[in-house]
Amino acid sequence: MTSQRTRDRLIQRLKDQGISNELVLDVMRHVPRHLFVDEALSHRAYEDTALPIGYSQTISQPFIVAFMTQALLEDGPVNSVLEIGTGCGYQTAVLANLFPQVYSVERIEALHKQAKQRLAELELFNIQLRHTDGNGGWPNPSYQFDRIIMTAACTEVPEVLVQQLLPGGVMVFPFDDGHDQTLMKITKTEQGMVEEAMIKVSFVPLLPGLG
Ligand code: SAH
After folding, report:
1. For residue range 35-44, what is the model confidence (pLDDT) as tens digits?
2. Is 188 a residue whose pLDDT tops 80?
3. Catalytic-residue membership of 42
4. Domains: count for the chain
5. Rounded to the nearest whole angstrom, what is the distance from the C-alpha of residue 87 to the centroid of ligand 1?
6. Which of 4, 5, 19, 173 is most buried (most C-beta within 10 Å)?
7. Looking at residues 30-38, what average pLDDT do you find?
8. Rounded mean pLDDT of 84-109?
9. Does residue 50 lie within any of the structural domains?
10. Any idea what the CATH number is for the domain that residue 194 is in?
């Protein structure tokens, strides 16, 4: 159930759904998603579906991970990316195979610790994780990033995240308008923020404070 053939089938499905970035497809073919879910669910790890990871949270659907990662790479190769919502760490692992520097924050301590252990076991050493509220951005306020990816839905973009985006930087995030959620891409230009609505999505909410 976790064989290369099962994984290849998932990659074919992602291609069929329009994921065309070969780098993203190649990384997702190799990152072992089954190691990021509970053993009892590992036989479902290569289905294109979100799965529970405890604490009322989920591991994102592979298509969404691929789509968001592809959006981060659209405007050329970059150095650093900040993720808000580490969760199980799967998206973090995908990013770490594509970006030189990956930073990720999680508000639930148990998930943060578990992700830290898993990512260390995979020998991904270009990742920095923090147990903190992502509404405050990366805890060192002087840091700025080429890309920011939020994996929980916000009702307002935290201003600090806009500040922590480098000029020319791109942020991809699910936005909840009270009725439904839309995946948004914003680009920080000299003229201001340029917004693009991408697809309808369904994410857990971005919550305040620590869990
Ligand atoms: N990136 C994950 C998705 C995890 S689900 C993956 O690869 O599957 C979203 C995560 O965002 C949850 O773990 C949730 O606890 C976390 N989260 C929600 N609000 C947050 C906040 N304010 N700061 C940091 N993490 C937050």
Report:
1. 999 999 999 9
2. yes
3. no
4. 1
5. 5
6. 173
7. 97
8. 98
9. no
10. 3.40.50.150
